[in-house]
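writing this on my phone so excuse typos. first protein, seq and then structure
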Amino acid sequence: MAIDLLIIHPGNQAVTYQSLESTGFTSVSTPFWAPLLANYTRKKGYDTAILDTNIDGWDVSKISDFDPKMVAVMVYGHQPSASTQTMQAAKKIIKDIKETYDVLVVCGGQHPSALPEQTVRETEADYIIKGEAVYTLEGLLDTQKNNGDFSDVAGLYYEEDGNIVSTKPAQNVVDLDNTLDDYAWDLLPSFDNYRAHQHQCLQDFEKSTDSNFLDIRAPYAAFQGSLGCPYACHYCMINDIFGGSGIRYWSVDKLVSWIDRVVQQGVRNIRFDDELFVLHPKRVDKLCDILIERGYDLNMWVYARVTTIRQKLLAKMKKAGFNWVCLGIESGNVDVRDDVGKVKNKAEGDNLLINDVVQMIQDSGMWLQGNYIFGLPEDTIETMQQTLDMAKEQNCEFINFYSAMAYPGSPLYREAVEKGLKLPDTWDGYSQHSYECTPLPTRHISAAEVLQFRDNAFHDYCEDPSYLKLVNDKFGPKAQKHIEDMCKIKLKRKLLEDQSVVV
């Protein structure tokens, strides 16, 4: 029996992460938008299914298992910038379907919204969705059912007579609680198929009996309590899909209902993908009170900006099960931070105050993942060294070192296009860990120098005796060995094979 809609979550982790994937060092996250959209379309009376290719793999014959009237390939990542790196997989999926089946195929998500006209040209999709896709998907389904005119559906880009045309913009969802009220978790593979980042579970490594620690990393779920961000950092494209900066929230009661549901299915490891989870202390305080009352044994991870951390809240967050905070520190040089819109107040312009926040989090008993970016426009070798020095001084329990990328939809992308800067040859090149990875050059140094510095810095940090001692002291010898084993993996980089770089 044919279904109305098949939503495909594309992915190719083997390409995105190279040998980090085959050795089990990466996470596999539950998709965010696919189950939200699926729940919405089901509420509207449409028979909907989800295919998560990160779990189920991809073979075009899988379409026959569903016999859909419409396929929606939704390009999203576990973080906003991660959507572009999945476009190669999305293009192949769309091409395979259109060559094999007579079915309407649409493509939406973060990357297609940022570059709708280019996505029309590069893919064989019948329509590209710009924006959140909630009301656009509903409009497409209604129009198909009633044999209507798709040009009346808001939020579409498509080709007509050799020209790319667009319909009127689609509206964003205002009432999240009642419109996007639930996740269609039942349409996804079991939570047991998903796994947390290894570092989110470092504290439990000693209890594990599995070589990849899968017995403590799974089951796993990731979701959001808000959409958007009130800030406008130049390297980020999160706000592009929403049409500008701003933030909308699901209620605390709604978040609790979702947590209750996944806990009942055995999930302990949870990641909130909100850009600024702790932006409103009263909201977080209420959530913590409810979770503490529930008595759950949770291991949760949230993202935060330095100035959103409130000391009085940290102890309660820890008690509620928020073990990890991922903090956007970005650069050790204030001028570099300021140049990309990261300095909005005194704290963000003062390295000592940033260090104080780092120490405050660690003193609370929570663990910290520091995020740092090398290769921002004003970076030099010297300023990137300042960033590395800051990271080593802060000695976070884990770190992410990024190369600055011109992610489509971000101000850096628009600047790069205007200046004719070299961008990745393929969408895989936007992955931080891929062979094709091609960061931006800065105003002072080349892309190759940035990438080389980033890769060297990662090993410098993770192989530092003081860091390894911290890991051993806090998490035990299995955690230390895990970090040492991770450092044995050397990513292959096409950009660095093409030229000799000395940093």
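second protein below, same order as before
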Amino acid sequence: MNTRCPDRPYDARMDDLLTALADWKPFNAIVVGDFMLDQLLRGAATRLSPDAPVPVLRVDEQQSQPGGAANLALDLIALHGHVTAFGVTGSDPEADLLSGTLREAGVDDAGLVRDPTRPTTVKRNLIGLAQGRHAQKMFRVDFESNEPIDAAVTTKLLDAFDAALGQADVVCIEDYNKGVCTPELCAAIIERARKAGVPVLVDPAPIKDYSKYRGATAITPNRTEAELATGINAPEDAREAHREQLARTLIDSFELDTLVLTLDKQGALLAHRDDPQAVHVPTTAREVYDVTGAGDMMLAALAAARANGLDWVNSVRFANAAAGLEVEIFGVAPIPVEKIHDELLTQHTAQLGRPRTLEETLVQVRAARHSGSKVVFTNGCFDILHAGHVSLLQRCAALGDMLIVGLNDDHSVHALKGDGRPVNNQNHRAYLLSALQCVDSVVLFNEDTPIRLIEAIKPDVLVKGGDYTPDTVVGAEIVEQHGGRVVILDLIDGLSTTGTIAKMRDH
């Protein structure tokens, strides 16, 4: 819960975003674009070839996964979208594999047209373990055609698109400049969606001419792509003005409603046609491991947020968080809405300097369970935090992946411990616990026991200190009924809050 410190003032708009996420609804999305298959060949690269000065990859594992617009479709699925895919593949085994993978994930591939005159786009990545430990992309081989699709294929796509448009909440165009997103197809998609009142969001290709995106609801170029499309280079002394100039030029030139200029670790610039004032939406700094798939995740999150009725600022805030989580992993993996919700809650509670509510904690639990993580729970007063407490909590954390601490509130501590307790109020105690690296969440309870929290959280591991026995641990039966276990950990002799207070009084 406490891995990042707030670096900007509290923004009350976050409350609206979190409220919307708590009531997140499924939506219908159409994805149009370049559907690809990413092949990953992994192994060890420990020697050079004897016949050329190149490393040799000894392949131990082969993996195929959707890429390009197909990856965007999976991102939308992870955000609770119902997705229909519109694109072009070849008539080859790779097309079968791609379609099968999409269908297995829940994507409707009825809009994928097979064209025997072109291959399915395949990106073959060779990934070796650097020094036997770190995955490193060594080389990539592409199988593709960049030739524009013909009129007959365009007609098939549009006929299928018309049939699906009536159920759509949002249309996404993912353009990798592989010949599918022709000016003719994009113009027809945008015009038909606009007539139906369905927003069109575009992740543009790195090209000079954006005219085929004319009339789109929004596009999401990065700064380099925007400079290429406008021909405007960045002056060294006018960073903010330059960004706003890029945004305004693209909006005016191509009749866009909105532009989201992505700025990597600096977040994004949000600009609208009917508002002269652009808004900078910051993001949280990340340890960047791999930027692959971040643009797809950004577009998916924007589309999902808009389909759920979020305003543009909160939509960009949500998308920033999603893309930030994406760059922290190697390769591509859809980021579920539960994890994004948890991330935003983490940022929000850190800014507020308070513990989480039970409802907020349950969001965190759902995110953990979605990723297969094991939840550990313990509880206590933790008044005057000492080495014994820290040791106990560290050992608790080692029993699973996420440690939730139930903390007696001030009323509860006073009822249990008597006059003069607690020494530290609940907010101070929660703050200290949250500062520990091993603690993922702190949630208050005002009852004598944490039974209400245990019933709601249903931890995989319930932990108490050695002054308890398994038959005296509150909630043990509940945990065991759900397949969990109860663990009793030894305490460090001579360390207790009561003893600490006594020593202070003696002196």
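Residues 1-10 have pLDDT under 50 and may be disordered. thats all i got for now
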